[in-house]
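Troubleshooting log. The previous structure file for this entry was overwritten by mistake, so regenerating from the original sequence record. Sequence copied from the archived sheet and checked twice against the printout by T.R.
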Amino acid sequence: MNPDKKIIIDALQEHVHSSPYVIVIEYTGMTVPQFSELRNRLSAAGAECHVAKNTYLRKAMAEAGLPDVGDNLVGQTAYICGQSEIFSAAKVLSNFAKEFKKPTMKVGVLGGAVLDADKLAAISSIVSRESVLSQLLGTINEPGARIARIIKKKFNPED
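Regenerated output below.
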């Protein structure tokens, strides 16, 4: 194998191996400003978007021990990986696709399992961990807040 290709594949392998998930998208028809905007939004969500040749990505994923998604690696594809949760990256992709009609999620890998486009869409609709925790905190604080309002009303009827 050409040493230059080996360097590229090793770098790709490091990206996909160090990330808990990989999402493959089709970005055909996207303009450069749109792609830059997508990258910025993904970066804010703790994810990165990279473009690589399909053959290199297929080889890097195989070397990383990830399932074969070779049938989906056709056309203009990019891959998303990151250190945060897959939910935030999938949500960004879903919202961006609603806004610009591109890109389309093709396939993903999470914990060794292959996720098709429908499963990725379902993941994008799940609320984030932070949202669930804030709802839980609101539920826990509600009884105390009610008691405080009642006491305030009892001792300060003018308010």
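The helical segments are 3-18, 32-44, 54-63, 86-100, 117-124, 129-155. Archived copy saved in two places this time.
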